[in-house]
Amino acid sequence: MNKLILTLSLSLAANLVTAQSNSSASNLLFFSVAGLCAVLVIWAMFGLASNLMKIEAMKNGIDPEASNIGIFPTMRDFISPRRPRYAKDGSFHHFTKGHDINLAGKPAHKVESMHTTRYAIKPTDFNDMSPIPKVEPEVGADVKAGDILFYDKKRPEIKYCAPISGEIVEVKRGDKRSIAEVIILADKSISFKKVQVPDLNTDRSKLVEFMAENGLWALINERPFDLVPDLDSMPASIFISTFDTAPLAPDNNLIVEGKEAAFQKGLDVLTKLTLGKVHLGLDGRGIAPSVAFSDAQGVAKHWFAGPHPAGNVGVHIHHIAPIKGNDKVWTLPVQNVITIGQMFLTGEYHAERIIALTGAELNEPKYVKTYQGASVADLLKGNIIGENNRIISGDVLSGQQVSEDGFLCFNADQVTVLKEGNDYELFGWLLPLAPRPSVSGTIPSYGTDTEFEATTNTHGEKRAFVVSGQYENLLPMDIYPQHLMKAIITGDIEKMEGLGITELTEEDVALCEFACTSKNPLQSILRDGLNNLKEQL
Q: What is the pLDDT of residues 71-82, one digit of tens each?
């Protein structure tokens, strides 16, 4: 702005010099330039005043973007989508990058109670855990919900607890005698271990010790690297996404219904664990969220709209408080927050979970009420169509394949059943006539409301890693995923860090992997990069 004013001033001086030798046209030019300079000076003064107002607002803890603080509206105010009327507090972010995958098999909007007979907690669900953790109860022993099951020998202070009461029937081994599952045969009526809950106003160290001893610490995920945090870890901030945009994802409004007090109590606990803020990501796509989310107290609220991955907590972190340097950020799903709140309200470890059973290969997609680590066979008994199917603990993009006699992953809130794509489509590369979800305009989409019965077929084999630019159109972050993946493959640590690897986890690049022309396993490549980076620290 200063350079522009200087340029115009020089032009004005030049006009003054030549004005004596010119006619009335030069006088008109003089007054025009003078008027333009005056307008620019006034505009610059108002712009400076507007910036000073925003700086003062930030000093007082007010988000200037969310509150539209300033003297004049910006161009973005005229072209940006309007925030929903119900989104009263907090910032609003609208993304155009991404893609929604509309699959058949959405669950009916009601919850059924289901008694499953077996449950398991899997040490393999936790990154960086020793292959052979110490299992406390012996096979045949009885446990209550909240009793210690096992702990990592590297960090024995962090305990992993039983989600239900029952008998330890098996400690299943994997390769090299690693422990794959600790399996519990559930009681018909759940009994709970009762503990004395500390006051929230006590020292942070006592809260941390209590949570670690009673299974609550294991509910927290620390970024980067997606680990259960050390007890002396202090997060820069804590993020919770209250909505999920992944295919067939469960509705958290239904999940939190009747548990509003526990959710708020969980938030109260989390605010005691950080010197920063607890950030709540809210659904701004047009349907008002539960009052448990929109009226939550003691948290910073942010509204997000747009296609998937708009609901990913990693996207929220990137746009609100990006991970910088040695920063650590904690994330939790909604149901983990509820479990923490329930413990502080009742003194009991309530690992109850509402699971969405989804997919076109189910007779009756629905929500069921069960507990953490429930048996997949019990959940899907008599509900699967056909035999040639794949069962996924989680969503189709970032979930984990499990066998029919397997168990839900630790943080799973969804089971998806798809038809296996091990059949061959004749000339499918030439005439892709069968409807299928795709980000490509060459595949018929049959309208935005079309529900696709997808299979696991990748419709092509792995090929050369070409630069296409498609990843950047699907990830609403200021990151170049394609360049990052190549840096990981070549083992360039400095380039990986510079390209923002610490801001990503597998679910953030899952949509890019779905659309990848080269059929590259981007999620496993990213995990290899994160593990490689962690080893260098």
A: 655 555 545 567
